[in-house]
């Protein structure tokens, strides 16, 4: 990753090996420049009014309105509970989001999208949105799509009828089929990928809780490697808490001076007090003039301080 061509000095390579040409292998997403979501809007934490959801694959952040979870807002919602009530799929209802771009490159996800536990948001002819892949179909506006439920029920009954018609009807065929089933164990690690009819929604996928754990048991390592997201989240490193109380400037000064011989301690205290007085004068002059203290001001201050000590 390093070096990356920034103005600040690299802290990994020694000074004698700097500067170095930038590493051309570095890759940065649009998030690096402050742009998020498929809409390409710039993110400003001071003005952003929408909640954004992180994709567990590419780790891009997407607006809830761009995911068709709720209409786009122009003003913030003060109460988090009110915000969740407006959301088509509340945050506690799923384990993770896989954005449409990540889904499009994985045949397994494309095949399972819309089935139970693999929730997708689809538009309706009435202009609202419906969630496929959970037990109860809920549309925006808190109204149930009875027509959609009836259609799904008809489709399920037709599928059952088709499967029944395709099964052998004779006892001999049943016996042969049962024998074949006992001899050949089903390979859960390599499920058959069936081509589904194209969907009208954006294609974002919301995984139910426990889905990744089930995939970890069901898929072999080769097939699991084709998924755009990890099946097990890595532990986030948290540095141990600092049990030592923070020292004040006076305590640090007293500790440092106390470790010096008497003559050097007196000179150090005199020099420290001299620096404080001159720094106070410089900062006060900047405050009275209304100008900000720049890096050049600080460097010039210490350069003059060193000259006065010679």
Automatic annotation (TrEMBL):
The UniProt keyword set, sorted, is: Metal-binding, Zinc, Zinc-finger
Top-level taxon? Eukaryota
Q: Does the keyword Zinc apply?
A: yes
- Record's GO cellular component terms: cytoplasm
SMART domains attached here? PHD
Q: Where are the stretches annotated Disordered?
A: 1-28, 140-204
Q: Locate the Zinc finger PHD-type domain: which residues?
A: 36-103
Bias kind Basic and acidic residues: ranges: 142-162, 171-195
Q: Mind telling me which PROSITE patterns this protein's record contains?
A: ZF_PHD_1 (PS01359)
Record-level Gene Ontology MF annotations:
ubiquitin protein ligase activity; zinc ion binding
Q: Where is the composition biased (Basic residues)?
A: 1-10
This chain belongs to which protein, by name?
Zinc finger PHD-type domain-containing protein
Species source reads: Trichosporon asahii var. asahii (strain CBS 8904) (Yeast)
**Lineage of the species this protein comes from:** Eukaryota, Fungi, Dikarya, Basidiomycota, Agaricomycotina
């Amino acid at each position: 990753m390093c070096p990356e061509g920034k103005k600040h000095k690299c802290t990994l390579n020694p000074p004698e090996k700097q500067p170095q040409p930038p590493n051309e292998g570095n890759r940065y997403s649009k998030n690096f420049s402050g742009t998020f979501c498929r809409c390409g809007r710039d993110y400003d934490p001071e003005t952003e009014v929408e909640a954004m959801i992180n994709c567990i694959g590419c780790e891009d952040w997407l607006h809830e309105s761009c995911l068709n979870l709720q209409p786009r807002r122009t003003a913030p919602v003060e109460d988090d509970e009110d915000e969740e009530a407006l959301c088509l799929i509340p945050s506690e209802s799923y384990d993770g989001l896989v954005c449409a771009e990540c889904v499009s490159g994985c045949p397994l996800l494309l095949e399972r999208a819309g089935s139970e536990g693999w929730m997708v948001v689809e538009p309706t002819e009435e202009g609202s949105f419906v969630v496929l892949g959970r037990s109860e179909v809920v549309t925006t506006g808190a109204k149930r799509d009875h027509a959609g439920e009836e259609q799904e029920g008809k489709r399920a009954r037709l599928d059952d009828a088709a499967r029944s018609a395709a099964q052998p009807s004779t006892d001999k065929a049943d016996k042969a089929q049962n024998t074949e089933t006992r001899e050949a164990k089903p390979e859960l690690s390599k499920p058959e990928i069936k081509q589904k009819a194209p969907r009208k929604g954006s294609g974002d996928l919301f995984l139910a809780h426990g889905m990744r754990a089930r995939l970890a048991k069901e898929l072999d390592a080769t097939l699991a490697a084709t998924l755009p997201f990890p099946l097990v989240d890595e532990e986030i490193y948290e540095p141990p808490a600092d049990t030592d109380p923070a020292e004040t400037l006076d305590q640090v000064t007293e500790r440092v001076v106390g470790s010096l011989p008497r003559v050097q301690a007196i000179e150090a205290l005199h020099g420290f007090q001299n620096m404080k007085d001159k720094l106070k004068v410089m900062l006060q002059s900047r405050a009275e003039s209304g100008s900000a203290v720049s890096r050049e001001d600080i460097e010039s201050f210490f350069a003059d301080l060193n000259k006065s000590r010679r």
